[in-house]
Amino acid sequence: MIRKIIHIDMDAFYASIEQRDHPEYRGKPLAVGRAAERGVVAAASYEARKWGVRSAMPSLTAMNKCPELIFVPARFDVYRAVSMRIRAIFFEYSDLVEPLSLDEAYIDVTDNRRGVPSATLIAKDIRRRIWKATGLTASAGVSFNKFLAKVASDYRKPNGMFVVRPEEADAFAEALKVEQFWGVGRVTAEKMHRMGIHTGKDLKRFTEDELIRVFGKSGRSYYLNARGEDDREVTSERMRKSIGAETTFLTDISERRELLGHLREIAEEVWDRLSKNFFTGRTVTLKLKYADFQEMTRRKTLAASIDRFGLFWMVAKELLDSTNIDIERQIRLMGLTVSNTEREQTGYRQLLLDFGDEWSNNSDTRYDRGLAPERLTRD
Ligand SMILES: [Mg+2]
Question: Which of 104, 187, 200, 291 could be disulfide-bonded to 226 (CB atoms 3.0-4.6 Å)?
Answer without folding.
Answer: 200
